[in-house]
Amino acid sequence: IKQTVVQSGFRWVRELVLDNCRSVEGKIEGLTAEFVNLEFLSLINVGLISVSNLPKLGKLKKLELSDNRISGGLDVLAEKLPNLTHLNLSGNKLKDISTLEPLKKLDNLKSLDLFNCEVTNLNDYRESVFKLLPQLTYLDGYDIEDREASDSDGEVDGDGVDDDDDEEGEEEEDEDGEEEDFDEEEEDEEDEEEVEGEEDDDEVSGEDEEENLLIPPVPLIYYQYLHIFVCKDFPVLTMRTQCF
């Protein structure tokens, strides 16, 4: 899979999804060990035959390889991905339990998916896999006692990317709440200013009646614009200039 990426940005990437891209002769290309902080990698339906040139990704925890043509060579995963916890090999060409034996070296592996692989048709398939991989908690979404995995068990990690998204969501909600409170305060202030503006208009009209001999009548348009601009905190002198 050929990708041109600015190398200096590789180390900031924590999730990489390349689903439905095309592999080169059934192998991965363009993915390097410079993705030092990568925790989630998805290569669904990319035509992979082999994972032999997978780079060393020490922090990778979840790997999606479903709907490819992988038939073996899984020893590379144990060598290059020592902290892998979730592995999805559904829809590949895995036929024998023995092809899974290299996964014994993945001490942190908790979840393995093999849906639509020929190996699932073998007698005592589940019992055999759990026996081969004692560190495994879930196989095809269920534990050894056929209890379904909870949503939390499907996460990459407790401190992973999903939690960051939740925190960002909470922050956005807090910000929205603050904005709503601020808008309500603004509306209250505007209402108070409108009341004050009306009182000022009444006082001004009373003074004009008392001093009508000294001050000529002010056009009605002045009062209308004066009220509007007082409410919006615009300088009164601006409108006076326009009115006169």
TrEMBL record:
This is Acidic leucine-rich nuclear phosphoprotein 32 family member. Belongs to the ANP32 family. Keywords: Chaperone, Leucine-rich repeat, Nucleus, Phosphoprotein, Repeat. The keyword Phosphoprotein applies. InterPro entries: AN32, Leu-rich_rpt, LRR_dom_sf, U2A'_phosphoprotein32A_C. Signal peptide: none annotated. It holds the Pfam family LRR_9. It is found in: Nucleus. One of its GO terms (cellular component) is nucleus. It comes from Monopterus albus (Swamp eel). One of its GO terms (molecular function) is histone binding. Residues 122-140 form the U2A'/phosphoprotein 32 family A C-terminal domain. One of its GO terms (biological process) is regulation of apoptotic process. Its main location: nucleus. Multifunctional protein that is involved in the regulation of many processes.
